[in-house]
Write a sequence for this structure.
């Protein structure tokens, strides 16, 4: 068994969205699980629509998701390989020139349909003689090139859909090379999958019909073909799919909205499978749990609103080590940083909320004083530092004894004074982080 290699092959013609992330992550996680390699391959042979800026944004988005590629390729730099493959197919008599214009093809298709025949290319070009071709060339007509499909049933064991087959007699011979010599998607994709030693092609089910064709081309070029897995596509509640063009649910817009990368990953990977969508603490954890065979054949319906709650639930379970760098970038570092994280993580909806609690423990905030006398009395009872998580209960016990306040009347004014807010993390954890000097000041002492 060759060592596993998978690829994510976006065309850099837009920003990637949640549905593209699903494909990318299923590939990345398969590589992680099988200890294989994950290749990012830009399908950028469509020079008119591909841009370097989109390629860069895709790299950034993958990095943010944690799906870091082991290698990056651009098809636009590999044209010589495709030329050589096309020549090999021509030499084998499997790639033939055809001269029909789009208008001619449309007319023939209509005729076939009116006679109740399937609209399949009739292979008229195969009947052309050398003299016919010479005449067409003399008229200035350049050919496009079609792959001559074997009219047989192609079968493969799809890692998601199971036993699959397509009767290639029901397909038109696909055009691989345009009149101007440029390549359509099909041939470069096969050539690269072979050249890069791709073992598993994991992609959306919109490519199922391509697979039969690609398996035939693969066999013609190399006598082998990779394994295939076609996952269902994400659709919203109305059943509509996602489009790169609209920018809806683009990874960058989710990132800007404060959605956690791991929440995106959990939703993108687990939706539409027999596994329930749940937050995960790392991609490694997700790699252990997901299974291509658990993916359903029905559409993967999802609710974007779930990203919000998944983000919060993800943050609540992350350990300090997983966020230390991001905390440092927000000015939370040093010996108390871990205790801070443990105190506040359960109250975060997005990571940006860290700033609120950082201000509470590090900055001058405006306390809310409901009862100034009570707060001053409480301040007078503060024990000397050092403080720890037991300080709060010892202190409030003595405030209760001295003032007679209890329950909400005891705790609510203290929370308002110390944090300026009605709700928040456990005060037992916050108190030592705020420290005696700030606590006294906020209590008005
Ligand atoms: N560029 C193609 C796409 O984004 C790649 C399909 C494939 O994985 O082969 O749909």
């Amino acid at each position: 068994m060759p060592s596993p290699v998978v690829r994510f092959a976006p065309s850099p013609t837009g920003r990637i969205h949640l549905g593209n992330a699903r494909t990318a992550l299923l590939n990345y996680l398969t590589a992680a699980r099988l200890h294989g390699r994950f290749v990012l391959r830009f399908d950028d042979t469509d020079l008119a629509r591909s841009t370097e800026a989109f390629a860069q944004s895709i790299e950034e988005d993958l990095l943010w998701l944690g799906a870091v590629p082991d290698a990056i390729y651009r098809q636009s730099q590999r044209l010589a390989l495709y030329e050589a493959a096309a020549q090999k197919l021509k030499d084998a008599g499997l790639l033939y020139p055809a001269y029909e214009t789009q208008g001619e093809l449309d007319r023939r298709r209509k005729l076939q349909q009116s006679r109740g025949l399937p609209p399949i290319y009739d292979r008229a070009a195969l009947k052309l003689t050398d003299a016919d071709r010479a005449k067409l060339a003399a008229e200035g007509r350049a050919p496009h090139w079609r792959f001559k499909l074997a009219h047989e049933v192609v079968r493969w064991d799809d890692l998601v859909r199971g036993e699959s087959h397509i009767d290639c007699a029901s397909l038109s011979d696909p055009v691989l090379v345009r009149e101007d010599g440029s390549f359509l998607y099909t041939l470069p994709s096969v050539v690269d999958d072979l050249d890069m030693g791709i073992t598993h092609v994991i992609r959306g089910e919109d490519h199922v019909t391509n697979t039969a064709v690609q398996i035939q081309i693969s066999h013609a070029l190399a006598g082998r073909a990779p394994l295939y897995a076609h996952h269902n596509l994400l659709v919203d509640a109305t059943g509509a799919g996602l489009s790169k063009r609209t920018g809806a649910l683009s990874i960058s817009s989710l990132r800007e909205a404060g959605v956690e990368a791991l929440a995106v990953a959990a939703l993108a990977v687990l939706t539409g499978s027999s596994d329930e969508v749940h937050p995960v603490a790392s991609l490694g954890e997700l790699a252990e749990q997901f299974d291509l065979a658990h993916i359903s054949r029905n559409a993967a319906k999802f609710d974007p609103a779930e990203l919000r709650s998944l983000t919060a639930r993800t943050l609540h379970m992350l350990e300090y080590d997983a966020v230390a760098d991001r905390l440092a970038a927000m000015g939370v570092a040093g010996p108390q940083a871990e205790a801070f994280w443990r105190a506040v993580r359960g109250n975060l909806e997005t990571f940006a909320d860290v700033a609120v609690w950082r201000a509470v423990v590090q900055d001058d905030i405006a306390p809310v004083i409901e009862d100034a006398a009570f707060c001053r009395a409480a301040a007078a009872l503060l024990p000397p530092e050092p403080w720890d998580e037991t300080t709060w209960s010892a202190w409030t016990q003595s405030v209760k004894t001295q003032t007679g306040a209890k329950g909400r009347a005891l705790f609510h004014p203290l929370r308002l004074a110390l944090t300026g807010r009605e709700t928040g993390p456990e005060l037992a954890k916050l108190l030592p982080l705020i420290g005696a000097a700030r606590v006294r000041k906020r209590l008005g002492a």
About this structure: The mean pLDDT is 96. The CA atoms of residues 102 and 305 lie 45 Å apart.
